[in-house]
Structures are given as C-alpha cells and as structure tokens.
Amino acid sequence: MRISIITPCFNAEETIEQTILSIINSKTVNTEYIVIDGGSTDNTINIIKKYKNDIDIFISEQDKGMYHAISKGIDLSSGEIIGWLNADDIYMPWTLQTIEKIFQKFPDVKWLTGLPGFCNQDGLYTGLRSSASAYIKSLIVKGWYQNGLLGHIQQESTFWKRELYYETEGLDLNLKYAADFKLWTSFAKEAYLYQIDIPLAAFRKGDGQQISIKFQSEYSKEVSSVEKINFLTKLIKKLNQRSLILNALFQFFIFGNSKVIGYSQPSNEWKKINIWQNCSKNSISDLRLAFWLYRE
Question: What are the residue ranges of helices labelled H in 153-258?
C-alpha cells in the first residue's frame, strides 16, 4: 500500500530540514515523498536539494499559496493513502509504518488521525493530548471542531484514502487559511473519522510566524463561512473562547460514539473499537497540570 506525503513550503530555511528528516526517518519502502516549494528566496531550496535522493518529486515555482501547492502535490501523487506535513511540523519515527499497517488491516477505514502532539521552536517534543476523544461525525460536518467548541482536528496527524479525497469537494482553493477545516467537513459527510491512540505528529508552536497564528482573524472568518452552527452554539463558542476552563468543561459534557484504533498488548495486534465517550482530549489530571504550567 503506497503512501504519498506532500510538504508545501516557502522560505522555511529554519525548520524545513527537521521536517524532511522526520519523514525520511519514518518512511517505508512504500512511501512517496513530494515537496512543492513556492519559489523560496532564502536557503530553503539548497536544504531540500541535500535530500534529493529521498524526495520523489520536487517542484519549485511561484504558486497561489499553501493549499494550491498541496493540491498540486496531491494531483501529482500516486499513493492510495495521502497526508501532508507542513514545513515546520514533524512526524514521529513510527508514523508512516503505523499508517501503512492500519490501512492494510482495516480496509473500511477511510480517514484517521492520531493524538495531538506539539513541539517548540527548537523542534523538541513538548506536549501531548493524552486521551482519545470522540470525533462525532455529524458535529464535524457542522464545523464544531474548532477553537471555542471541540478543538481542532490536527491536520499533520491526519491521513486519508485517495478515493475519499476525490469523492468529496477536495481542497477549496478559494480559501487561504481554513481549507483543511472545510476538507474535514467534506470527509465527515462520507465517512467516520477514526483516532489512533498514539501520537503521530507534532505541531510546532513557535514565535508566532505560522500562518495559523499570524492570520487568526482571517482564519476565523473563513471558518465562519464554512461552519453550520446556530445562534446558541455561536454564543457558547464566544463564551468558551474567553475561558479555557469553561471550554474544557464544555468538551467534557459533549458525548458521542468514538471510533478508536488501539494496540492490544495481550493479542499483540491493532484493534478497532467503538466506545461512547466525551469529546475532551484531556483527562482531569491533564487539566490540573496545565493549570499550574500556564500560570503566570
């Protein structure tokens, strides 16, 4: 089973090497790696060329932004399974081997995600949302998985079948910041999202230069154009955004059918289970620890 990974990049000289190495260290013989550069003017291209023997397709040309680059990479890819890793995020050493095994073992799984993980500007692993949570199909369609409601579906930890991508609307290239958010709503119309009970990737929380941080206002506007939430839900979202504690409690009280893939130690194999649980990605212990860590 072939896996295609796309990395879009532009002037990412400070982080691109660690991203590439994380893929090289995780890839299997069935991994296809594609890098789409937007015409970088710093040292990014020279860094990429250091690893040309491990990159199957490399294009550097002016484009219309990140999602245009990703879309181009997907169209050039040949894998049955697709994912993308931005030029400042990282995979775990076991990620691609695990993804290959899971999709081979469970042919009915069309898309999946791992436990959300985080790293700092130096690329050091710094945090993990340690509890598998419910990804409720109908609420993904409505756009509830965002700040102020049920939290994000972590893009760098999410993989899907090619057939699902082309069965749906694909990436909306009219959006500059929230096309992945809309993509998840399209996927959820067709299939359940499964969560693997291990971390697969880490989102880099750095100096505020990431697109998702620099353009929060623009991102929020695009999310609002996609979401299908009523007035009461919008009010709850607004209140939750003012209080991390309130938002955490809100997630604890939203329950649904959770599709989880976990490893059974007694039988030494991956197993797929359905379990009724809440949408919080944190345990009470996680929240207590976070309270002390985030205190000024």
Answer: 162-167, 179-190, 211-214, 216-226, 231-241, 244-252
User: Domain range holding 273?
Assistant: 106-296
Q: What is the pLDDT of residue 213?
A: 63
pLDDT (average), residues 266-272: 93
What values do phi and psi take at 178, rounded to 5?
A: -125, 30
pLDDT on residue 158: 98
CA-to-CA dists, residue 30 to 34, 56, 65, 102, 104, angstroms = 13, 12, 28, 14, 12
Kindly state whether residue 96 falls inside one of the protein's structural domains.
Answer: no
The reported pLDDT for the residue numbered 215 is: 78
Q: What are phi and psi of 248, to 5 degrees?
A: -65, -45
DSSP labels, 50-87:
TTGGG-SEEEE---S-HHHHHHHHHHH---SEEEE--T
Q: Could you tell me if 80 and 151 lie in one domain?
A: no
In a domain, 217, yes or no: yes
Report d(CA 56, CA 70) in Å as an integer.
Answer: 15
Domain identity same for 188 and 76: no
CATH label of the domain that carries residue 85: 3.90.550.10
Question: How far is CA 284 from its chain centroid?
Answer: 24
| Number of domains composing the chain | 2
**Cβ contact 90:80 at 8 Å:** no
Which amino acid would we find at residue 199? P
Mean pLDDT of 199-216: 75
The answer on pLDDT for 206 being more than 80 is no
Q: Quote the CA–CA distance of 146 and 229 in Å, as a whole number.
A: 12
